Amino acid sequence: MDRTAQLTARPTDRDIAYDPPPTADSPHVRAAKVLEANWTGASTVPSRGLYPHQWSWDSAFIAIGLRHLSPLRAQTELETLLDAQWGDGRIPHIVFNPSVPLDAYFPSPDFWRSSTAGRTTGAPRTVQTSGIVQPPVHALAAWLVHRADPGLSRARGFLARMYPRLAAWHRYLLHRRDLGGAGLASVVHPWEQGMDNSPCWDAPLSRVTPAPARSFRRADLAHGAPEDRPTDLDYGRYVRLATEYRDRGYVDGPGQFAVEDPAFNALLIASEHALAGIATELGATGTARHARAERLTAALIDRMWDPAREMFLCHDVRSGRLIAERSVAGLIPLLLPTLPRDIATALVRTAHGPHFGLGATTRLAPSYDLLGEAFDPHRYWRGPAWFNTNWLLERGLRTHGERNRADALRAAMLDLAAASDFAEYVDPYTGEACGATGFGWTAALTLDLLHDFEKPRDTKGGSRG
User: Some GO term, biological process aspect, for this entry: which one (predicted)?
Assistant: First the structure.
């Protein structure tokens, strides 16, 4: 099996039994209803209440699930997102819906001021976006969406239109975001890595003077328990970093916060392999992209692998040191098909060991070290289990031949997604729902896990908008 195929493979008949036909109250139908309820006509919101706009990596994961319901809608999801791409190649982490009131979410469009503050870096004029980015899952999502209905994809020229945009996105990350000089991408804000409130950010954030609490208004506290959300002090630092980035015109450089994250870079590498598959589909060669992905994998190991902790750690570009915190981000490189066997084996051992307890003390892998001082099973990214990170781990386990462990994780995810009403995240021990329910990527990834991709599917008239 080649590298791109390893990243996109799903279980076969020999791995799992076919799921029964969906009934009215089945997880399949319930998940589909969540995605229908969150659909705006051109994209899918993560949550109608808490997150009423389009989010970048959410849309990538949502498209992966939507491809099983409507390949056309999955393509539209990604096309809508990439229509907001900036001239420098960045894909913004939020595309704002102009029909949503400004006070429904903070930071709102009037905070980011993308069309004015981002003018020199190529922000679009016809749509308002944020100025930061999120993890690059998009090429992997586009490749999976294409494979769901190649005939429709080719007829619409989907990959031919996506490829140059995705290539520009990767160029942006590999060149303008190589702030550490090692060839890897840096994030310049905790929101960019996606795991906003992780204890991994505590040390680098301590250098940032928080914005005064009176200078911003938090809309998130109206939708979740304050004790489960980031503190006002942390939020003040998030606002300060975003304000400074905006005020320098979203020009990349060594600011107060610059971190190389293993999950962010692992997803970039996985998407490089996917771009190689897309190039081949379009009649070009993917050899150079596979080679780049392998070089990036070597750089990731050299820069962030900690043999003593048997996992990857974040690298603080400002201090030049690894951040000694274990988070689920350090397990995500298991997704990579060319990871050396000894490192893959160590990651599996760590995921199932005392720090994450997968399959032993926890039902899903927590977002942070169970034994860490900052662990909290309910506080945002400081301990709860998330479905997207566990979906990535499931694929990683399967990629490296850990079929039984992958099947067990798949079963746990399906059980907890349905039982929690497709919660944003859950207590890793009990599965108790936390955050929003009816959450977009939880429903979408449930559909993906329910669907045996190797089963023949009827593509005649099978795409609906």
Answer: protein N-linked glycosylation
Q: What is the pLDDT of residue 49?
A: 87
Query: Residue 268 sits in which domain range?
Result: 27-450
**265 pLDDT more than 90:** yes
- Asked, for residue 333, whether it belongs to a domain, the answer is yes
Q: Give 195-212 pLDDT, tens digit per residue.
A: 989 999 999 999 999 987
- Nearest-angstrom CA–CA distance, 203 and 208: 10
HSE of 33 in the Cβ direction (CA atoms, 13 Å)?
A: 14
Those residues with Cβ within 8 angstroms of residue 47's Cβ, 6 or more apart along the chain or in another chain: 38, 223, 424, 436, 438, 439, 440
Whether the model clears a pTM of 0.85, i.e. scores above it, the answer is yes
Angstrom distances, CA of residue 394 to CA of 8, 120, 365, 404: 12, 41, 10, 10
The three-point CA angle 426-334-366 to 5° equals: 20
pLDDT higher than 70, residue 7: no
Residue (of 290, 332, 296) closest to 314 by Cα position: 332
Judging by DSSP bridges, how do beta strands 94-95 and 54-55 pair with one another? antiparallel
Task: Specify the CATH number for the domain of residue 382.
Answer: 1.50.10.10
Rounded to whole angstroms, how far apart are CA atoms 191 and 201?
A: 10
Beta bridge partners of 51: 47
User: Could you give the residue numbers annotated as active site?
Assistant: 196, 424
Residues 286-343: pLDDT tens digits?
A: 999 999 999 999 999 999 999 999 999 999 999 999 999 999 999 999 999 999 999 9
Residue 288: half-sphere exposure toward Cβ, Cα within 13 Å:
4
DSSP 226-288: GGGSPPHHHHHHHHHHHHHHHHTTT--S--S--EE-HHHHHHHHHHHHHHHHHHHHTTS--HH
CA–CA distance, 79 with 76 (Å, rounded to integer): 5
Q: If you search the block for the tokens 């989907």, which residue do you land on?
A: 158
Q: How confident is the model at residue 235 (pLDDT cuts 50, 70, 90)?
A: confident
In this structure, is residue 209 part of a structural domain?
Answer: yes
Number of domains present in the structure of the chain: 1
CA dist list (Å): 169 to 64, 77, 166, 193, 436: 19, 17, 5, 16, 30
Residue 15 pLDDT > 50: no
Unique residue bearing structure tokens 């400002």: 318
- Which amino acid is located at 87 in the chain? G
Residue 22 lies in a domain: no
| 38 inside domain | yes
